[in-house]
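Sample intake sheet
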Amino acid sequence: MHNKLTDLETGTAQVKLIEIHKAFAIRLQKSLIAIVVSVGLASCQSGQPLDVVEITIGDIQDALVAGETSCHDVVSSYLQRIETYDQSSGINAIIVTNPAALAKADEVDRALAFNEPLPELFCTPIVVKDNFDTHDMITTGGSITLLENYPPDDAFMVRKLREAGAIIIAKTNMAEWAFSPRETVSSSFGRTANAYDTNFVPAGSSGGTASAVAANFAVAGMGSDTGNSIRGPSSHLALFGIRSTLGLTSRDGVIPLIFDRDVAGPMTRSVEDGVKLFNVVAGYDPNDSLSVSNRREADYREFLKQDGLNGKRIGVFRRLVDHDTADAEIKQLFFDALDDMRSAGATVVDFVAIENFDTLNDSIQSCGSFRYDLKQYLSSLDEPPLLDVSTVLESGQFAIESKGSLEFFSQFPLDTAPDERQDPCLIWPNHPLRNQLLENTVRAMDAANLDALIYPTWSNPPAHIDNANEEYLGDNSQLLVPAAGLPAVTVPMGFWQEKLPAGIQVVGRPYAEGALIEIAYSYEQLTKHRKPPQGFPALIE
């Protein structure tokens, strides 16, 4: 396969590579599912099939403990949903399933049968974005050049999740190299569509995880966020997503885009499930140079409070509300959300401004560190298929949507860290403009005695899938949070024209994830905006 692909002429490679590997992915996916389902059924434990549509981690675990189903049946149900719906629906969210998933499920069933102690995420079937290292599945980062990349070990977060009992059932498609916040297109597995309407984008770059979780292909998922990519896709797919304070969570084993802005984290249908995953993955990792010790809470699940809005002071960051191009209906959903928060006992402070926000925002430029950062990751592999992303540009083995970003990043030095260049580009936490933005934001919150800032995650509806660039409007996630290293969550706030999801973003002080969880959970429980997309019904009667 590799030789055939590299012999393609550069002028036609981009299109042909996507077509060839999408077909390859479909065949591979179906064959693996057939294997794991057939093998697993032979050893299936007693129990009844479970309707997995919109169920939670707690629902699964309660059913298992009560003897109403088996972990084998639960995992099999999700695999069958992937096989039945992923390609036929046109969302194309899954790149590969885990052939060991049912064997892991059987281990849980044996533990249950013998009344053995179980970890906190036992029998939690999840999907992870294709930039997380998984020792038992390929990790391509959305690039055809890494199609045969089997990392030697798991990413830090993947390892923590497995140790806690989660079962990785599949990897999800992503924007190639995580370049695009607008759409999810890879050269390895093609284009992912929005599960609510395949005529629209799921945003990027974690669009595969977002559509997969929204369509109930797993109980939860993991994504990464450099500027937008957890919160944007979560907003477009009616999910809860959390981007933690930079340094609170590890990125070890996650293919980097911009190392001093990258964050990884959960994307889930409920706040509670997201917090359960976050509680496992948050914490210090010596293999991540930006990781900070002794800053995580003992147990983030303690912040799941029904009355979490009561007594909170929440400031409306109007700069990210009153866009000239903001959609009127989404603004109204946002104002309705403010009313809901007031009804739950929150004080809404309208309006909040951050000193010199526009000036700082315009002045803070990315260091263009992708080429350098990626080399550090590739060098960690046992047999790296490449060592310089610029060779990808030269080979023509990329999705046409990635060409501009590849050209941009290839101009920077390969072997020199950004802060050691002849013209140094300072990185976090030694970046004076980013530190100033952080200081000004915290000062504004202190002045109004605020627990959080709030604004629409995306001020406009999802773009049409064939017009993603032209309709790329309203992405608020790129502003403030990544540059300042602040924590933020998004939670559903309703539906645009009653069909496409919209989300509300809540931003806090550094390491104040607990307060954000309280606000998000209380608002979710009050409003119950989440509803599943049509076209993915239960497969059991």
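Comment: The two ends are 42 Å apart (CA to CA). The CA atoms of residues 362 and 479 lie 10 Å apart.
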